[in-house]
Amino acid sequence: MRLDQIKARDGVEIPCGIWDAEGDIILYMHGIESHMGWFADMAGKLQDDGFCVYAFDRRGSGLSKEERGHIASYRILINDISDVIGSIRRDYPGRHLFLMGVCGGGRFAADFASFAPEAIDGLILVSPAIKTKVTLPLASKVDVLLNSFISPKKKIPTPLNGDMFTKNERYIKFIKNDTLSLHHLTARFYRELIMMDMALAKKIFSLDIPILTVLAEDDAIINNDAMVKWHEKLKTSDKTLKLFTGCCHFLPFQENVDEIVSFIADWIKIRTRHR
C-alpha cells in the first residue's frame, strides 16, 4: 500500500491509500468513527485477487488535516467523492470502478450513487447505516437541532462503541488502541447527514446500476429486517442481497473475511467479464 494525496476542487488534500494491481478498481468509503486504516487488511486481500483498491479518509477523519468530526455542508463530501473518482478515472482510463461503503460509508456511497450514478459501474453496500438500530439519544438530537446553526462546531458524541463492531480479539484491541478513530461529530455534521439523506436517499430506488447489499447476521448497529425491505424496493435489474451468518457488524474484522472477500470479488468479476 502506498499513501497519496488527491487534491479536491477547493484545494484541500484528501489522504488516500492505494493498493495497486492490474484489475478493476474498488473505491472504499469508511464509516463515521473509522478511517481507511480499518480496511487495510481486506484491501490487501482484494489486491491479491487482482483488484486495484483505493480508500480515502473523509475530511476531519483519520489522516485528514481538516477539523476533526466537522463538515460545513454535505455537498463538500459529495464533491470530494466526485474528485477522488475523477482522479482515479484519469489515472486508470478504461477500468471499471465499483464504489464500496461500510457502515456510515455505505450511507455516503448510496447517497453519492443517487447523485451521480454515471460515475460508477456498480455499488457495494456492506452493513450500510441506512436503516439502523442505534441512534442518538433524545438529548443529543435536541442538541443537534439547537446548535447546528448557533454553535455548529459543538462536539456531540456518536452513539457507537467498540464492542459493536467485532468479537475478534485482535481487532477489539486494534479499535481500543486506535488514536485516529472519531468519537464525536459536530452539530453541523449531524445536520448535514440528515440534509444529505433528504436530498438524495430516495433517488437510489430508481437507479439501474448493479447493487450488492451485504449484511451481517449478528449486527448490533444495522436493522437487517429493515435493510432487506429497503433492498427489495430497489428497481435496478441487477441487485444482490447476501447475509453472512455468525458475523458482527464490521465484516472486514470477521474471522471468515476470506469468504467475504471471495464473494465480493466473484460478484464484481461476473459483472465485468463481458463489459
Describe the structure.
With 275 residues, this protein is of the alpha/beta class. The protein has a single domain, classed as Alpha/Beta hydrolase fold, catalytic domain (Rossmann fold), CATH 3.40.50. It has an eight-stranded mixed β-sheet, sandwiched between helices. The longest helix has 18 residues. The mean pLDDT is 96.
Number of strands: 10
Helical segment tally? 8
CATH superfamily: Alpha/Beta hydrolase fold, catalytic domain
Q: Over the alpha carbons, how many angstroms does the gyration radius reach?
A: 17 Å
CATH architecture: 3-Layer(aba) Sandwich
User: What proportion of the residues form beta strands (DSSP E)?
Assistant: 15-25%
CATH structural fold name: Rossmann fold
Mean pLDDT: 96
Strand order of the largest sheet: 1-2-4-3-5-6-9-10
Report the CATH C-level class: Alpha Beta
**Count of domain modules:** 1
* Main sheet summary: 8 strands, mixed
Uncertain spans: none
Task: Give descriptors for this structure.
275 residues, alpha/beta
Blueprint (SSEs and pairs):
Layout: E1 2-7, E2 13-19, E3 25-29, H1 40-48, E4 52-56, H2 74-91, E5 97-102, H3 104-115, E6 122-126, H4 138-150, E7 155-157, H5 169-177, E8 184-186, H6 187-200, E9 211-216, H7 224-232, E10 239-244, H8 257-272
Parallel strand pairs: 3-4, 3-5, 5-6, 6-9, 9-10
Antiparallel strand pairs: 1-2, 2-4, 7-8
